């Protein structure tokens, strides 16, 4: 039942405020400015002994993991990174007992992720799952984890589960942080930010009409560039994947700082750039990148917290805490992908050549 929406993608994009409400529900502990994650199976002593975090996932879940790694590193000060599970599996990685491994998956059935979990467990590693489908293979195989509670996601293209996974990572990062050196004050700050998310998501979704108009204009592009820096980079990666999957327009994501090392050669009016421009300590750096693109007659669509003079259009996203900004900044770009695909008459819920869960090698 699509409840009045024309596709599951559209329905699921619009379910995100409720979905985020669900992932937060019952987990916030105001007394200690932390969160409780019932299924983690990781006591405080163990949490303090973690020396590194390695996050594994595929596709959109990998991108959510990239955001999660940054959150864990920022809030818990544990070195963390994400890697495609498929790459990790095949490179005979060093498995280290002081590393916490985290497998991320909407379906909980993705073969490459499951195989990575099994290989890690065989070698005695501790593996947590950040999974949406309760009781799925990866959830069962993991030593513990955090359920994402996005609810059923039907569209092959992941939207609400991506958002909820990033929120689940914020909870995990806050929990690890408050078990280690994150102050009560910062804990409170993050909790306040988390509580604002559902309302802010609805504020973004209210701009759908304007985003639709932009999408119709960009639907003619043969290729698009997505750029971001640090917190904005995984957002750019995910937005670029979304556009490719549903519209079949070629898209490439690049760290904004890498433009001058090559991709600037591509800039011309026919290659539009989508830039993620949060109001954080990198704002001026990002503005400089916009200027470089503008100087070469590139078209720019900015997703930002305030109007960007160098951009041709700016979609304004409400500001949250710096660490939580990436949760929101991709949402207008889900709508951009959706409306671009719609303008092109694509099969939005079932893009060609793709399956909802990839249970083969
Ligand atoms: O179920 P999973 O999260 O493990 O799936 C991983 C990827 O196959 C999935 O995210 C894929 O990239 C989607 N089509 C994204 O929209």
From TrEMBL:
Recorded GO CC terms: cytosol
Tell me the ranges covered by the SIS domain, including all copies: 42-188, 214-351
Q: Which UniProt keywords apply?
A: Aminotransferase, Coiled coil, Cytoplasm, Glutamine amidotransferase, Repeat, Transferase
State the coiled-coil residue ranges.
Answer: 197-224
Catalytic function, reaction form? D-fructose 6-phosphate + L-glutamine = D-glucosamine 6-phosphate + L-glutamate
Where is this chain primarily localised? Answer: cytoplasm
The EC category is transferase
List the catalytic residues: 356
One MF term in the entry's GO annotations: carbohydrate derivative binding
The residues forming the signal peptide are none
Q: Where in the cell is it found?
A: Cytoplasm
Mention one GO biological process in which this protein takes part, according to its record. carbohydrate metabolic process
Q: EC no.?
A: 2.6.1.16
User: How is the subunit organization of this protein annotated in UniProt?
Assistant: Homodimer.
Known role: Catalyzes the first step in hexosamine metabolism, converting fructose-6P into glucosamine-6P using glutamine as a nitrogen source.
- What is this protein's name? Glutamine--fructose-6-phosphate aminotransferase [isomerizing]
Q: Species name for this entry? A: Streptomyces echinatus
Question: Which gene carries the instructions for this protein?
Answer: glmS
Q: Which residues of the full protein are shown?
A: 245 to 605 of 605
């Amino acid at each position: 039942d699509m409840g009045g929406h024309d596709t599951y993608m559209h329905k699921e994009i619009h379910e995100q405020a409720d979905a985020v409400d669900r992932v937060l529900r019952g987990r916030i502990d105001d007394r200690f400015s932390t969160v409780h994650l019932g299924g983690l199976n990781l006591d405080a002593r163990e949490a303090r002994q973690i020396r590194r975090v390695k996050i594994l996932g595929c596709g959109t879940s990998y991108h959510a993991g990239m955001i999660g790694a940054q959150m864990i590193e920022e809030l818990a000060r544990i070195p963390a990174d994400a890697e495609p599970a498929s790459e990790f599996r095949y490179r005979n990685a060093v498995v280290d007992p002081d590393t916490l491994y985290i497998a991320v998956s909407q379906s909980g059935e993705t073969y490459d992720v499951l195989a990575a979990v099994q290989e890690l467990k065989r070698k005695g590693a501790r593996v947590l799952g950040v999974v949406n489908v309760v009781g799925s293979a990866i959830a069962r195989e993991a030593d513990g984890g955090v359920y994402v509670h996005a609810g059923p996601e039907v569209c092959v293209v992941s939207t609400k589960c991506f958002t909820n996974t990033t929120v689940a990572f914020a909870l995990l990062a806050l929990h690890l942080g408050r078990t280690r050196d994150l102050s009560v004050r910062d804990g409170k700050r993050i909790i306040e930010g988390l509580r604002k998310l559902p309302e802010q998501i609805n504020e973004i979704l209210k701009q759908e009409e304007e985003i639709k108009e932009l999408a119709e204009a960009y639907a003619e592009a043969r290729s698009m560039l997505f750029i971001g820096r640090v917190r904005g980079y995984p957002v750019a990666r995910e937005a670029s994947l979304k556009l490719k999957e549903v519209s079949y327009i070629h898209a490439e994501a690049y760290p904004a700082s890498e433009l001058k090392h090559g991709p600037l050669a591509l800039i011309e009016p026919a290659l539009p750039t989508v830039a993620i421009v949060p109001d954080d300590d990198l704002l001026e750096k990002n503005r400089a990148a916009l200027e470089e693109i503008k100087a070469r007659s590139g078209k720019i669509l900015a997703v930002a917290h305030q109007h960007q003079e160098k951009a041709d259009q700016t979609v304004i996203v409400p500001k949250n805490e710096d660490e939580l900004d990436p949760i929101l900044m991709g949402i207008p770009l889900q709508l951009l992908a959706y409306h671009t695909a719609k303008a092109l008459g694509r099969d939005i819920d079932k893009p060609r050549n793709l399956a909802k869960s990839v249970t083969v090698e």
